[in-house]
Queue: 4 jobs
Job 1
Amino acid sequence: MSLTQPQKTAAKAVGVVILMGSLSWASVPFYDWFCRVTGFGGETATAEGASDVVLDRTVLVRFDASKERGMPWEFKPVQHEMEIRLGETGLAFYEAYNPTDRPVAGTASYNVAPFSAGGFFTKIDCFCFEEQVLQPGERVTMPVTFYVDPEIIEDREAKYVNAITLSYTFHETELPEEVASLDPPQTVVQN
């Protein structure tokens, strides 16, 4: 059976739509992988422990906090900046507060600016690695342990970086099942 010209054209058009849909679906995980490998887009590196090398050169690290629209928490860095030596382990804290009368779950996304420093900003431990759930009225201090990889001085762009900004944005997420299934606290009304 031979296809007519309009059928061939329609088949090609469907093929192009399927190809473009497949490429757009694959672009998000591919871009995420690319950013993690290269540090492009301010994606940070991770490590199990501290750096083996500490240099005398210092860098100023600034801390920034924001929330997605509609996220009811209050969220801020405890300190706004610190100066550390390349390879030195830094410890910074962020504070989150849930002023609502319900539990709220959140996940933090992050980036580093300038982008050229992203692959050299190395997190050892971070609250952004897991979902956070705050109960009504709960206030928590969340640590970030990090260092700036001394290899930054070998990079043709990043070696000129004197200040790095670590930014977090909290997004509200669905409550985990075990928290969502709990009965809300009962209010006792006295006459």
Job 2
Amino acid sequence: MPLFGCRVLPACPCREAAFEQAAAERRQQECKDRLARLFANAGLGSRYRHCTLDNFQPRPGASGAYSAARAYGEQIGENIAAGRGLLLFGPLGTGKSHLVAAVVNAAVDRGFAAIMERVPKLLLTLRATYNGGAVTEQQLMRGMTDADLLVLDDAGSEKWTEWTEPTLYTIIDERYTQQKALLITSNLNLAELQQKIGPRAMDRIVDMCAIVETSGPSYRRERAKKRLAKAGAGKWVK
């Protein structure tokens, strides 16, 4: 029976789809705005905000990591949607941070909400919230869960405490549970990394991430040697 003689017509499916799409885009923009307030410049800083896969300097021992990062970046939408991750590990100075920063930049260029945080700095930031301030621990943790892509750079370099291990586990477990994409870099081997972050976190990482090892000398030290040689400033000390 029509209400008061009025007939209520069902919404057109195309209009419903457009409304849902607009609502999803609005939620996505709200998420990106919130993350921009919490993590300035996606956490990249001035050194990494211009990193791309095209300006990566090829080097011995990094070809596998470069190929994995390029493949991930070329299918960034599919990888984020599927919650696929990537773990790059190996000696310092082998290009790991550049490669994951390049993936973050590719994600941002495609409109995704992405964050790259160095683990030691992230833990210090979380601890600082205990002293009060404009940002709370809950807001930071929610931001790391809501982001389409999260990069934990330099995992394992943090000082281990009874607080750091469960905190890192919570971040990793939330990404795992929500099937959100996670990229990790570490200068440790896999056994050393597990010792630092704990077996529970490591168990989730190996399930959600492709694992690629890098090797070779430090690119930073090679550049320093060249600067010294050019300046005639003396002998390089290993």
Job 3
Amino acid sequence: MKTFVFFLACFISTLLCHVCHAQQNTFNVKANIGNIKDNTKVRLSYYVDGELKTDSTYAKDNKFEISGNITTPSKALLEVLADNTSKKRSRLVFYVENGSILLNSSDSLENVTIANSKLNAEVKEWKDFTKSVQEANEKLSATYQSASAEEKQSEAFMNQINRVNDSIETKEKELAKIFIGKHPDSFFCLDQLFTIYLGYSPDGVEAESLFASLSPELKNSSDGKKYAAKIESWKNTSIGAIAPNFTQNDPDGNPVKLSDFRGKYVLLDFWASWCGPCRKENPNVVKAYNDYKDKGFTVLGVSLDNEKGHSAWLAAIEKDQLTWTHVSDLKYWNNEAAKLYAINAIPANFLLDPNGKIIGRNLRGEALVKKLSEYLK
């Protein structure tokens, strides 16, 4: 995904997700893992109705067993701890579901095989089905990681990285359509749909189409309804939609409405003083602003700083010479405007026309200037 290029440090972690119903189920994880010393602590974390649960036990003769009650299948994190401390030795992410789940490995969790679990079998099927995509992602990541600092500052290099990444994402979505078509009643597919479209630029229309192909049971589940609401928010901020209005205070405490800027082209820019990629992108926004501010263009900056970061926010505005209007409710990732626009990573932006219609999204570097040149000759 594109987040590993620019936005990894600012991306919201979603390692553990869950699916919520109202039926009581019991899972039982039985493991036989080689090379685990007796009395080594094992910890399992999972969700029940949105609440994080943690169970633990100790290994004996390379074996351990953990049971629990869940209302629906849940993604879980299993950790083998070294020397009975919190230091993690190995970990496994998998699904817990109703019934007995068997884990087997001759050496470690990293090489475990999972038996007697429909959901985890589907996870393996998905990994095998998308092997080419995962290999392409690993290759692209290696290319970026091995690049010099000078190359990473090169716009041509980063454009090439992003072009390859876009093609990988497109292929992954194509495979997801096929896979979900084969498993329309799978809880894993519901989670996977959300994971794939939780990226930097979620496509609400495309996600809605895939969501519609799921079984009525999944769509009508509490988590299905939650995902449907998220998809609706994506649709409301897609290209061609009228940008949702909001009001937040500027640094002096004065309320500012997005609708106050009607009549101009507006770049709605989500950023924060603590976000390194945002600060690196700011010079490009400054250039675009200076080139087009006298031609009907402006910027409205929305900061995801928190209350303790108020002074850092103001200092960043001054240091980066961001001479346009700025607002924030100082709620960090709970910024109401950010939630309204389904922001999952920053920097993120939306280009609005004088009528408030979204005509561009996540325009970086030359892409912003190029788009503005189309409208402001």
Job 4
Amino acid sequence: MKRKLITLIIITVFTLQLQAQRYVGGDISMLPKYEEAGVVYKDKNGATVSDPLLFFKQEGWNAMRVRLFVDPSKDADKAVCQDIDYVKKLGKRIKDAGLQLMLDFHYSDTWADPAKQWTPDAWKSLSDDQLKQKIYDYTKESLQALKDYGATPDMIQTGNEISYGMLWGTEGSSNLKKCYTNNNTNWERFTDLLKQAGKACREVCPNAKIIIHTERTTQPSVLTAIYDKMSSASVDYDIIGLSYYPAYHKDLSTLENALKSIENKAYGKDIMVVETGYSYAWALGETEYDYTKTYPYTEEGQRKFTADLVTMLNKHSSVKGLFWWWPEDNGNKNVTSGWWNAALYNHNTGQPYPAFYELKNFLNSTDISSVELSAQDDNAWYTLDGKRLIDVPSKKGLYIHKGKKVIF
């Protein structure tokens, strides 16, 4: 009985520590532009909010994500405007509000995603060796500028959705430096770039967590192959970042399968969903998966999706972050060319949709204690930080099995 009591106490303390390390929020990179346009943010009762950042914190969010482009003046898209001066000012506001800051390096003059990883114009003439030095210098200079301004990032993405590498070269070129997991072409180049970026992060922001962000959620074998290559190349990072939009990545079970595949690999990394979103009225552009039978494109459908997403993620102790993409979109078409159909604000009233209030429940998980307790009786294998494997461990190490520490 005494041993069980001690175990329960240890588990309770451990659970509280893990909960304190969880983060929930959104990518609010366009917030200053909406404010400049005179957009009014309100609470659910219709009262005007004087400072959206303080309101987000008041309602349970504790972290914000901001993207950074090398030279966004090259792009005509109004949403591509986040240069270092812009990010410094917004980053300081986030930190001053008592929120954690996630910085998302795009390493491009425009949107970087799996289909677009174009090298910045000013870097295009550089050789691979010069590019490795440039990404180190640029990352270090950017972080130092933020730090000096009082906007030190707490989490840093060294690249955005880099499932197929980054800094490919010029759009239309016949010799793009893409990476595919079924061959080794360009992988050494890619991981060397990540190492250089990570080196700069450790030097300027030693306490920040480095995130490697991918989005092959529908292809778990590709997803794990990417992180296998990161391990083989000894890339230094802390968090596996994922994108998950049902419109492009299918149902919640698809995401959960991806999470289990990563967990079973026992990489020793936390996981964060650094981008997610679901529509409140209309389908997202280029939607590939119709989830409306389960979650209609309504305010309630969006809320129910968010609640179910949170419930599922709270079953996974490895998942430490959940970020909604562009939640602050608030109906002013002069700010961007159109609305983001998965925003969390009503474009007509300026009030948050119900899904806004569901996200904070990600911080209230109590599932870890039940997982740890059941681990004493079931036949599953667990990592020391409580991650349940779907099979026997695939790597040597120390694990929990039937309530005991086991060297595998």
